[in-house]
Write a structure and sequence with these properties.
The chain has about 450 residues and is an alpha+beta fold. Helix content is about 45%, strand content about 10%. It starts with 20 loop residues before the first helix and ends in an 18-residue tail after the last strand.
Length: about 450
């Protein structure tokens, strides 16, 4: 008989009644990273709720892939269900399979190629809106860019403007409160504390606005457009011919908005900062962009050729990855020789897993070259999973990589971004750690040539 939960070591620092909630809420990134020192499986208490943290990439792969049949989405996703309903992030296995099959055409490479044109236009408009010497809050600039770009691909018509405004206003509130809702003691779940009230109000407004956009799109005679909303409205199950209901479409759109903005925005903001600190990496990246793209606009066909750009982005997302993911066992699950009973919450942090020194030498160092070394080639395939793995892997991963690559390859040849004096950004905890404040100064590159003879800084703001 295999050992049970009692044999899993407990994390240090527990307090009476609240368990590990205090260190997890105060310094979540430090806390999840420190758990590796306790063991591959670690018992953490949030109030009276036991959570088993997985601290190695191979065990996380078992949870996400090889033994995924024994788990469902856990507490983290239960707590955001009021926002995303039964979207891909929270849906049961049967619903998830059906919805993913219906949504997959919207993320086919041919559709991504269409989206890439919008991404390129938006990135170019942003680069042309800056002035030499301008001070930019890069974390805010990238958030606005990704929201605008995602909205333009989700909704092809101007009726979506209220949704864009609502996303800009409410998404930061939702992302900030989401993690808190997952790690607060369960006794607080239904109390009208500020974090719960703010989250619920923001979620209700966003869902209502999206409902209005869907209804308005249905009423338009030209609603068969090449955008994601129209694709979802037109999707039919190949076996049954059934379509998604408006509620199901709403849930999937909100899920995409929720999952598809912070990842790209945070990755881009950190990339510009890391490049400013590592001029040799920036120079090599510029050389690649100049060779592949030159002075024309970036296209979807350029993406596979920008190989070093991908390595730079890989390294950024390794360093600043997803803070927390959770699952709940639905059947007995054996991990590391220990049987975990049904109904147990399991958690793992991609942020922490990708800093494992056994997999990544000098894990805190920004080093894109590591991905081109012999060590990287010998890494097991499960060692790096920035978008999750298995059937629940993020459906929009190619979308996110494409947008980040196009933005970087558009902005970098035109502008050198340098941190403002005294700037030392810290990781602000959210679904994905983003810079708390990153003011940067835009310096025009003398050799930059904008398409059609336009000069950087000469166009309208985005």
């Amino acid at each position: 008989m295999t050992p049970g939960l009692h044999s899993i070591p407990k994390a240090p620092g527990a307090l009476p009644l609240i368990g590990h909630a205090w260190p997890l809420l105060r310094h979540p990134l430090d806390f999840v990273t420190s758990l590796r020192d306790t063991g591959p499986l670690v018992h953490v208490n949030i109030g009276t709720l036991p959570i088993i943290f997985v601290t190695t990439a191979d065990l996380a792969h078992e949870v996400m892939v090889t033994k995924a049949h024994a788990v469902e989405k856990g507490r983290l996703f239960d707590r955001v269900r009021v926002l995303v309903g039964d979207g891909l992030a929270t849906a049961s296995s049967d619903v998830h399979r059906r919805h993913r099959r219906l949504m997959q055409p919207a993320f086919h490479h041919k559709q991504i190629a269409h989206y890439a044109e919008i991404m390129s236009d938006n990135a170019l408009a942003l680069a042309e809106s800056w002035r030499p010497g301008q001070r930019l809050a890069i974390e805010q600039v990238m958030a606005k860019l990704t929201i605008n770009t995602l909205a333009a691909t989700l909704f092809a018509t101007d009726i979506a403007q209220p949704a864009v405004t609502s996303v800009r206003r409410n998404l930061p509130i939702i992302l900030k409160a989401m993690l808190l809702r997952a790690v607060q003691p369960p006794i607080l779940d239904h109390l009208p504390i500020p974090s719960n009230r703010c989250f619920d109000a923001a979620a209700a407004e966003l869902r209502s606005v999206i409902d209005n956009v869907i209804a308005a799109t249905r009423r338009r005679p030209d609603h068969h457009m090449p955008d994601l909303l129209s694709t979802l409205l037109a999707a039919r199950d190949a076996d049954t011919g059934d379509a998604l209901t408006d509620t199901e479409v709403r849930d999937e759109l909100v899920t995409i908005l929720f999952a598809g903005t912070e990842t790209t925005a945070s990755t881009l903001a950190w990339t510009f900062y890391e490049l400013s600190q590592h001029p040799e990496v920036e120079q090599r990246l510029l050389q690649e962009i100049n060779t592949v793209v030159g002075t024309r606009t970036v296209t979807y066909k350029d993406i596979p050729q920008l190989k070093y750009c991908r390595r730079v982005l890989d390294e950024v997302i390794r360093l600043h990855g997803v803070t927390l993911l959770m699952r709940r066992t639905t059947a007995p699950l054996e991990l590391a020789g220990i049987t975990i009973p049904p109904g147990t919450e399991i958690a793992f942090s991609l942020y922490a897993l990708h800093k494992d020194p056994d997999l990544y030498p000098n894990p805190q160092r920004f080093d894109p070259q590591r991905w081109l070394s012999a060590d990287a080639k010998s890494l097991p395939h499960w060692a790096f999973s920035p978008f999750g793995a298995g059937s629940r892997r993020c459906i929009g991963d190619a979308f996110s990589w494409t947008e980040a690559t196009i933005t970087l390859a558009t902005v970098l040849p035109r502008w050198r971004l340098r941190p403002a004096s005294g700037c030392s950004p810290q990781e602000a905890t959210s679904a994905m750690p983003h810079p708390d404040h990153l003011p940067m100064i835009a310096e025009a590159r003398l050799s930059a040539q904008a398409p059609e003879g336009r000069q950087p800084g000469s166009e309208r703001p985005l």
